[in-house]
């Protein structure tokens, strides 16, 4: 009996070891740049250069990058953070991370012809990380027109509730990430005076019949339902138009007559796993012809704070955070991004009515700056076959959500939809075709870090 028991134990261990031995090894963990070329035009002072890995590392991993400037001097005309040692950058990928980065900053008040470059080369990475194929990157001190590349977006932590929104400039091979909850109100730089809520956190607002912030107390919130997460059709009246139509914001156009501007109660976040925050009472006035004055306070506070916001024509909006009580940077300049990946409140049906619903993986186009796009089914023409000759029969739309969440499925066959791709015309007239590669484990991706490929179809004249 004992012999039989020992035999069975040995057999089980041998079988387990055999299974372990038969498991395929993980593929090489490669580190490389996001693209082979990036531009830094005259209006852009700083660029964040990212080095991406195939997967997260278990331990802190040193990486060395050689920096070779041409026509521009390191230390006086540009600097890096961390600083260069000679012509070498020493970086570290933190344990548990799948990327590292550094900043390249132009000095103020320097004259550049646009021919200057900084060549970057990954020369080494500590074992077991290996250097990938895109090991060289040329930063040009001028705008570029990219021929296309692959990008993996940095949505940060959170998976389906990823904490970041990501803005992409296709022609510049560039992406920039910002925390979705880093702002509360956006102030339009357009000719009208419009204020938007943070759709990315599911913010909601309602007007009171008062125009004096000091007269508003907690009593004014009794009985108020100010949520977009209860699947009530009435919630659509508490949020800005989901198409981005600035004539349909919850807060109407700010009047030049102060007495006409009401107090609003704002619920700062009700969607996308945004942590609950205290409600805020606000009032917005015009500040002459070029800006706004924001008054705000907690519901129970008896005094309010004031923030002045000046319109900046280089941007769609200027943003303010109640956490900091000041302006914050969110979108890049409107000429420096084409699409935005994020989560946000959209609409769905409960079978009878449209209701507000938080959708992850939304892709918006920068329609306010003139970007247009089209969805193309592969039954009409394949992604690889789509060429300049197809542009004339492509119907471009200035629809913020022409891509939306249409590119992926979260029920049925979960993953990127392979029966469609998108064509994006940027504000300058460059036309790119774009297809998503992955976004979730079902299609080989990672939730919160979608991958897509894009290629230049036609350069603007």
Helix-strand layout with pairing:
Blueprint (H helix, E strand, L loop, with lengths): L1 H21 L7 E4 L3 E3 L6 E8 L7 E10 L7 E4 L6 E6 L5 E8 L10 E9 L4 E2 L4 E5 L7 E5 L11 E6 L4 E6 L5 E4 L6 E3 L6 E4 L56 E4 L12 E8 L3 E8 L6 E6 L6 E5 L4 E3 L10 E11 L4 E12 L6 E6 L30 E2 L5 E2 L3 E6 L5 E8 L12 E8 L3
What this model shows, in words?
This protein has 3 domains: 30-144, CalX-beta domain (Immunoglobulin-like, Sandwich), CATH 2.60.40; 184-329, no CATH class; 336-458, no CATH class. Helices cover 5% and strands 38% of the residues. The chain has 1 helix and 30 strands. The protein has one helix spanning 2-22, and strands spanning 30-33, 37-39, 46-53, 61-70, 78-81, 88-93, 99-106, 117-125, 130-131, 136-140, 148-152, 164-169, 174-179, 185-188, 195-197, 204-207, 264-267, 280-287, 291-298, 305-310, 317-321, 326-328, 339-349, 354-365, 372-377, 408-409, 415-416, 420-425, 431-438, 451-458. The strands form 7 sheets. It has a 5-stranded mixed β-sheet, with no helix packed on it. The longest helix is centred in the first third of the chain and has 21 residues, at 2-22.
